[in-house]
Amino acid sequence: MGHSALTDRILGAYNLPYSQVLPVQKGYRNETYGVRLTNGRLVNLILYKSEAGILAKIRTAHRVSEHLARQGLLVRHPYDTRVMKIQAGKHIKYAALYNYLPGKTIPWEAYTQEHIKLLGGELSNLHAALQNLPREDGPSVSDEYLVLCQKMQRYFSEPGVSKALQTKLGLTISPQVCDPLLQLLRLAHGLPNQQWLHMDFVRGNVLFAQRQISGILDFEKASWGHPLFDVARTLAFLLVDCKYKTADQVRKYFLQSGYNKRGQTIFKNIKLKTDAGTVNVLETLINLFLCYDLYKFLRHNPYESLSQNEHFIRTKDCLIERKVIC
Prior knowledge:
Blueprint: H1 3-13, E1 18-21, E2 25-26, E3 30-37, E4 42-48, H2 54-70, E5 78-88, E6 91-99, H3 113-130, H4 141-157, H5 159-169, H6 179-187, E7 195-197, E8 206-209, E9 212-216, E10 223-225, H7 227-241, H8 247-262, E11 271-274, E12 277-280, H9 281-300, H10 310-321
Antiparallel strand pairs: 1-3, 2-3, 3-4, 4-6, 5-6, 7-10, 8-9, 11-12
């Protein structure tokens, strides 16, 4: 069944009269179709790829985004509360309908000081709006990254990987790089003031229109944890991708001028005592996300091609500058 027939089938199940299905936009775990209804209104139809636990992710995303929409935030949320189960060939997929948000993403190299401040303020507002949403059920961000970090440590422990990194990329990455990250993730269960987080508040999920944020997308990675996880995840992207801004400028614009001054919550870092001494939680989490990004580059690309990948190079250089790898 082609995309046209499949979308017809899904929209028919929703009993939604429409005049046009726009070209597909493919993402990491979904396909998105803009749909123009017969009344002229636009909605988004999302067809999710088959993967373990995707239905639970969709339901969590819906609960979090619906709560934010009720609080007045401009977020993608369900247009229809039903999630359709679709048999597509040998696979079972899920589809859902969402509101349409105007605007577009912009490349990181086009991010100005004002864009970074807007990001910080919007994440602060999002955190404030989520403080009163009970957990009930859903993934723990520290548990999820504990599993990922253990996979990363096993990868860097492989002798062949260690040799290839040195000979092909001139990198020395010890599996011990993961030790402080794993220790922090285990301690993170006990951090106070945990709440729902977006955990994918990055360029591709933020829309801008008329120099303002016009929409926040993709809540499928929403997890329960301390807001520092969300802040560190976004900062890890900004520090790598805002190549025309220094690290100090990015922090100042995002945390001080944005998160604290323009948002409804105040950023507060935490220091924890570990076996290795006192740990700066924000900086350690930034290291975690940078290491995980580097790991994904290494796992999913031939090493020989990475010298042409600017994002890999900037991630590597950032980790070297932070003295995490050498």
